Amino acid sequence: MEIPEHKELREVARRFLAEAGPKLREYEDKEAFPWPLVERMGELGFLGVFVPEELGGAGLDFFAYLALLEEMGGWASLRSILSVQQSLVLTPLFTYGTEEQKRRYVPPLARGEALGAFGLTEPEAGSDAGSLRARAYRDGDFYVLEGQKTFISHANVAEVFLIFAKTDPEKGAKGITCFLVERKDGVRTTPLKGKLGLRAADTGMVFLDGVRVPKERVLGKEGEGFKIALSTLDTGRISLAAGAVGLMQRALDLSLAYARERKQFGKPLAAFQLVQEHLVAMKLDLEASRLLAYRAAQKKVKGEPYTLEASMAKLFASEAANRVAYRAIQVHGGYGFFEEYEVARLYRDARILTLYEGTSEVQKLIIGAHLTGVRAFT
């Protein structure tokens, strides 16, 4: 059962979306980053939901964060910004950062005064993150970073980057270290345009050409980078599941409204058994996904291992969101094929959910390893 603070946060999000939703479409059409909407989210405390108030956040709990992601899930470009900022940047900062690192970076990130990015994926290292080629060489009190990253959310708008690079290539994944890198250190970025969905969310490439980073900006310990990446992705997968739930809820709400209003053969679409079959299947996928997401979150909050539960939630919810978006188009018929109707955007936005932060295939391998005790990959 939700506590009053969670319900209040949901209401604030709904009021925000009532105003921001129509504006977001303009940014989607232009593939432009919605800075005014992001600034407003920062003012409302959306970018630091579970960050303590003394560090600039809203001081709520992880379940409040999931409630917000659900509400924002139907507007996936905005939801993506929340997920990257909190699941992929603030979460590892809180878990592995020193007190000095937290004081320096958390307040501006939590207030939305700066955005962060998670720099793991490379042109030749996607699902096989341990094979990344970025290098970090020690030079006195500094590390010198060389390499490039791709498909990085917030690449062109972030001021702070979590960059994963190998400090000891001979050790493979165990030789990866995570660095807190600032744009002013000399990071170069370039946009990646033409995405199927998330058209108002920034994506790009990151270039590290002799970027010098003080040794005090190692996050965690040298060689802990891969562990940090995996633990961060566990949290990210829960947030993606919650966002998928929100997308499904929006698709179902729009489909129910359309089915009640639209008439064929002299009666509303909602009166037809096969249309009801679509709506029922959508509801079942939605509620099953919500339960899986919250079960994983409960284990996380309790401090119990939750990698398996996070993978199951992410796998099921991301695939379910694609099924639900497909059914929403079917309910809307030919009208659903046109951008004028919101379900077309939901259909496009749903597709990425099975790809990033671990593809569906990778999630199956993770779950399979837990079931059998045998890893299909190292």
Automatic annotation (TrEMBL):
Q: What EC number(s) does its UniProt record assign?
A: 1.-.-.-
SUPFAM superfamilies, A to Z: Acyl-CoA dehydrogenase C-terminal domain-like, Acyl-CoA dehydrogenase NM domain-like
- Annotated Acyl-CoA oxidase/dehydrogenase middle domain residues: 117-211
Any single Pfam family the record assigns to this protein: Acyl-CoA_dh_N
Q: Which UniProt keywords apply?
A: FAD, Flavoprotein, Oxidoreductase
Annotated Gene Ontology MF terms? oxidoreductase activity
Q: Which residue ranges run through the membrane?
A: none
- Cofactor(s) named in the record: FAD
Give the top-level enzyme category: oxidoreductase
Q: Where is the Acyl-CoA dehydrogenase/oxidase C-terminal domain?
A: 223-371
What PANTHER family does the record tag this protein with? ACYL-COA DEHYDROGENASE, ISOVALERYL-COA DEHYDROGENASE, MITOCHONDRIAL-RELATED
Similarity remark: Belongs to the acyl-CoA dehydrogenase family.
Protein name from the UniProt record: Acyl-CoA dehydrogenase family protein
The species this protein belongs to is Thermus composti
